[in-house]
Write a structure and sequence with these properties.
By secondary structure, the chain is mainly α. It has two domains: 197 residues, no CATH class; 184 residues, no CATH class. The protein has 15 helices and no strands.
């Protein structure tokens, strides 16, 4: 009987409310449904319609990054439990931000339509403005659930939202809604998520306009905002440069190899960081040094795993591309071999960022991003001139290494 009970107990332990298993399940389901939705709608609508939606979502991403308050992470990291009054001020701030972004996107839609040659897709751009408004209306109770590491509750909300997004989007596409199908699905999914944050999550704030009482979050959140702005530039700089200097064929190979490597390496680390940030924060609040010990164990485990995966992918890159993408993409194999290194470093960076933010040092992560950006500006132009698109990829490797090195230095310095 003992041999039977142990495995059953282990299974129950692996799926308790705060287990990281729920984070993994959430990421697999959410990313899987997103992939199904965009691949299916892409086949139905074609590249032109998807390109129009991409511009609309890019506008939303830029506006949200430039106005990122960082309040959600400040609530998770704070040593003291936020009061209902403070959560009310957080909700007011985020709702106001969402409304401002929505109005701004509606106003600039005609200009974007002209600049990106979208052939009269003003209404599509303006429809995308609903997304930041809906997200801003969500209850800050969501952040409290993150803070308490109730990952099962988070997974149920996120997967429900993703399923609604995928199902409605596909139905609209099959019904002839065109490019609007993607946005309609996203709006339905975000609306469901917002409603669920009020219905199934506790610690609901008072619904009234209140901006005061959260000044103590600003010192932390301002570095989150700065990091969001820098990361926005970093994530687009290399792609813009490759596209402008080397043409669409090189850009296609660059993006495919980058995205492929990201799916195989970085996405898993980003998912893991959603578990690690609140977990490190909870241990840091104890003040007994357990956060540093836990960080060391996780970093060593992930680093060893990444080395094995990188070596395997580099050795199997050619048959992998031939099997999944065909001979037309074989020119991207050398880039893929570089990008698996880049994404492995990016995976380590995700762990470093989670720990630094958890111990109240988001400034170090922003400094690391700035260092990465400066190196890119210095190294990419000569690397592009000398080695083309391969030079850009290696320049990314150098900048990522410097960024990770700076964060490691800041962590060691605190010991």
């Amino acid at each position: 009987m003992r041999s039977i009970r142990a495995p059953l107990g282990s299974v129950r332990l692996a799926f308790h409310g705060s287990a990281p298993s729920w984070v993994l399940i959430q990421q697999v389901v959410v990313r899987g449904l997103a992939a199904v939705k965009f691949l299916a709608i892409g086949r139905i609508l074609g590249p032109a319609a998807i390109g129009n939606v991409g511009v609309a979502l890019l506008a939303v991403a830029i506006a949200e990054a430039l106005s990122d308050t960082g309040l959600n992470q400040a609530v998770v990291q704070a040593k003291g439990v936020p009061t209902r009054s403070e959560l009310g001020a957080v909700w007011t701030t985020l709702t106001t931000r969402g409304a401002f972004i929505a109005l701004l996107l509606i106003a600039v839609a005609p200009l974007m339509n002209a600049q990106f040659h979208l052939n009269g897709s003003v209404a599509l751009l303006q429809l995308a403005a609903a997304l930041p408004l809906i997200r801003g209306l969500a209850s800050p109770a969501y952040f409290m659930v993150q803070r308490d590491r109730r990952f099962q509750r988070l997974a149920s909300v996120e997967t429900s939202s993703a399923f609604a997004d995928c199902a409605v989007g596909l139905l609209c596409a099959l019904s002839g809604a065109g490019a609007y199908a993607v946005l309609i699905g996203m709006i339905v999914g975000e609306t469901l998520k917002t409603v669920l944050t009020w219905l199934v999550m506790g610690a609901r704030p008072p619904v009234r306009l209140k901006w005061s009482g959260i000044g103590h979050y600003v010192n932390f959140s301002r570095w989150i905002w700065a990091g969001s702005v820098v990361n926005l530039v970093l994530n687009q700089f290399d792609k813009v440069l490759v596209g402008r200097l080397l043409g669409p064929a090189a850009l296609g190979a660059y993006q495919m190899s980058s995205r492929f490597a990201q799916m195989l390496l970085a996405d898993a680390a980003i998912a893991m960081s959603q578990y690690l940030f609140p977990t490190f924060s909870a241990h840091n609040r104890k003040g007994d040094g357990s956060a540093a010990k836990l960080f060391t164990r996780y970093l060593a485990f992930i680093a060893v795993g990444l080395v094995v995966v990188v070596l395997t992918l580099r050795m199997t890159a050619e048959p992998l591309f031939m099997l999944l993408l065909g001979p037309a993409w074989m020119s991207a194999v050398p880039l893929f071999k570089i990008f698996v290194i880049n994404m492995a470093i990016g995976a380590l960076i995700a762990v470093l960022v989670a720990y630094l933010r958890a111990i109240g040092d988001p400034k170090a992560t922003t400094q690391a991003s700035v260092l990465q950006g400066v190196l890119l500006l210095l190294v990419v132009p000569p690397a592009t001139y000398g080695w083309g698109v391969t030079g850009v990829a290696w320049a990314m490797t150098a900048s990522l290494t410097a960024s990770a090195g700076w964060m490691c230095y800041r962590i060691i310095k605190r010991v």
